[in-house]
Structure formats: C-alpha cells, structure tokens
Amino acid sequence: MKIVLLESLGVPEEVLNACAKPLTDAGHTFVAYPRDTDPQVQIARAGDADVIMIANMPLRGEVIAACPNLKYIDVAFTGVDHVDLEAARAKGVRVSNAAGYSTEAVAELSLGLMLSLLRNVPQVEARCRSGQTKDGLVGVELRGKTVGIVGVGAIGLRTAELCHAFGCRVLGYKRHVRGDEPAFVSFVSLDELLAQSDIVSLHCPLNDDSRGLIGRENIAKMKRGAYVINAARGPVVDSQALADALNNGYLAGAGIDVFEAEPPLDTAHALLHSKNTIVTPHVAFASAESMEARCRIVFDNIRQWLAGEPANVVL
C-alpha cells in the first residue's frame, strides 16, 4: 500500500517516523508532504495513493475522483466536513477520523476563554503594561454561573465536568439523551438553555441542523449580558449577528476559536473588531499532548483498517 500524508500532523519528525515505522516495516510506503490546498498539487502528490491522510485541509471530490487506487481516507481531525464524503461514498472509499484526541485540549481552552472573559484578562493585562490600574475592570467569578453546553459529546461533557468542578450549574442540550449521562448535567431544550445560561459554550458538530445555530433569532433568546464560547465549528455561529449583539451591548463577550474559514482570516472579519471578544486562530485542539495522541490514533486507524477491523469510522 502507498500511504500519502498531505499535511503536517504537528509533531516532531521522530514522533511521526516512530508512528509510521510499523507500517513501513510491514512493506508499505509512507510519504509525507507539506500542506498545499491546490487540488492539482494534491492530485500530483496522491494520485497513486491507496491511503490519503489529512488533518483539517479541504479534500475535494475532484481529488478523490482522480486517485484510482484510493481505498481509505484517514482524517487527523474530529470533524470531517472538509472532506467530500459524497465523492468518497461514490468511490467506495472508507473514511475514519481521530475521535477523542483533543477532548482535554478543547475543554481546557474553552474553560480558559470563560475565565479570561469573566475576569477581563485581556483588558487588565493591557492596563498593567501601560502603567495603569484595574479601576473599572474588576470581573466576576465563574463559580455560581449557569453554563449551557450545546453538544454534549466527549468534548462537551469534559467541558461540563470542568465547569461543574468550578461550582457552576451546568445545562446541556443534545439531540439524543440516552439516560446514562452524569447527574451534574441537566438536559433541557435549546430554548431553555439559551434563556437560562450566563455562558453558552458550543461543542456540537457542523451539520444542517447546527449551521447558523447562533444567529439573530437564537441570540435574541439568550440572556442579556451572556457570553458565547465557540470551540466547535465556525459556521455554527452567524459571525455578523454575533458581532452586532456584542457591539450593541446585548451580549457581554465572546471567546471564538473557529471561523467560517481557516486562519489566516481577512482582517476585516466582524469578530476581529467586535467588543470584548477574545479570538484564537483555531488552536483549541492543538496541544503537545493532543498532537501526539492524534498521530498515534491515525496510524492505528490504518493498521486496524489493513487488518479488516476499521476504527473511528465515519463512512
């Protein structure tokens, strides 16, 4: 089998080589390339591949269709909305993701954004550097706040656990409540969650139901003075609607890690200029620990697929 990695997995070369070694020792070919989003470059690099590995780089249908030997796409990411799944399905190509690798990393950054917003960390840091004081910028504690988790999968649940440990009341919303969820999460309708939460933290996948979920209509259902955290997928939020609600004072602040497009962003993007907004360039998933975990997971995916027991299957 020829295995082609089309972008960096964000780990040291020795870690990548150690993960690939069992496959190359078994006689398979492994080739790694730097990221290039040009479909023609991708086709030139992966045209004879049996397996394509990517992280969050778009993989279009034209690339999938142009690879006659392609049998498996291994996505080093949790979301797979950047892969043309219909093209893969039409070609009979299996697709796996790296579910679970970034649970802790995303949950921790989500909590960090909450704390930074509530305690006005960016503003008081700037004050301190300019020889000023905290006057007018004394914040509030996370303890005692109601945090609404939209999408209580592994990441949402870990975020809920951390908020619970800080003394928060935790509300949850997901489409299917099994009944074995932890007692510290109270599951309610989306409307109830929006109306009651001091902080709404988004951890849902991007699909037809969630696209634009936090738009003008649902923002109007939120508490005045609430905060929004988005560490899910950018299009879950209507950026202009959120920016307007922040700028007119209806919402108190936002922590945004994901956008409609991958950074670097257009510097005119509305959420780069809205009031009390902390922005990070899609970094929530990325810690030294999560990157190594991701590397191990995706190479394990290939070994299990080759053994006829595919793991983390999304298609």
Automatic annotation (TrEMBL):
Keywords, comma-separated and alphabetical: NAD, Oxidoreductase
Residue span, D-isomer specific 2-hydroxyacid dehydrogenase NAD-binding domain: 111-284
Segments forming domain D-isomer specific 2-hydroxyacid dehydrogenase catalytic: 17-314
Residue spans crossing the bilayer: none
InterPro entries for this protein: D-iso_2-hydroxyacid_DH_PdxB, D-isomer_2_OHA_DH_cat_dom, D-isomer_DH_CS, D-isomer_DH_CS1, D-isomer_DH_NAD-bd, NAD(P)-bd_dom_sf
Similarity comment: family membership: Belongs to the D-isomer specific 2-hydroxyacid dehydrogenase family.
Protein name: 2-hydroxyacid dehydrogenase
